[in-house]
């Protein structure tokens, strides 16, 4: 009898526990969502984390790879090698060097800081400089000192994408990358979770569209009938000079995509011979073509022109608007050159 009574009490206790779980379950994160830090949240405080499924998304993984390769390329002279964005960027050291390289500004921060306070102070200085640069251009600030220092991948990626786009990094960000983010908030002593979708990248055209619109945007959007007139004028202009090397252009979109004609054209316009070891005369890979276009851009800047708004990758990828911008810039500066 005692045994039956004990079992009955246990069953009632289990039933009560199930009832409590059923009532509170919408307010409690699942075990896969729960992090030790969540229990330490203050009332009404909130933290976010990347959904585990999004971390395994191929497009998100590709975005991480592109960003890591970009950082390592930019900081090659500093002998900095990034392997993991969360582990390598949280203390502010790499972000400091990256911002200084991209902006050409030297930040007044300690070079090496081991303490948490020192790291956060460095991050504060770096992020203030970043925010002062990006906020006037309409960027939403999706990062903070605490979020980055806690090795939260979501704000780190948002920050890097914003920097890459603002400084027109010579990379091609994968398009339409979205992630699912888990938001954890403490209310009345209980943890509440919600899932939201965050868009990291859109289309290349839209991402480039964050920059100031120019005459070609207006031309392509509102006067496509005049486009052929412009293209004919540019073809006449480039052939006037390339004909000296027995070269001729008939298609602007394709014939400048490997960068060879751009390099040769700059030499003709500036009146010098470009050594063949400086570029690939018969480029085969995407990287070699990007090298050629980038080198042509350097020659343009050496000639006193502003840095082209177009990215070398977009020219290589047969983006008509980007190619037209580059050629029109040459036309306006060298139209009277013999």
UniProtKB/TrEMBL annotation:
Transmembrane segments: none annotated. GO terms for cellular component: actin cytoskeleton; focal adhesion; lamellipodium; Z disc. It comes from the Eukaryota. Keywords: Actin-binding, Cell adhesion, Cytoplasm, Cytoskeleton, Repeat. Its main location: cytoplasm. GO terms for molecular function: actin binding. Residues 61-168, 228-335 form the Calponin-homology (CH) domain. The keyword Nucleotidyltransferase does not apply. This is Parvin, beta. The keyword Disulfide bond does not apply. It is found in: Cytoplasm, Cytoskeleton; Cytoplasm, Myofibril, Sarcomere, Z line. Belongs to the parvin family. SUPFAM superfamilies: Calponin-homology domain, CH-domain.
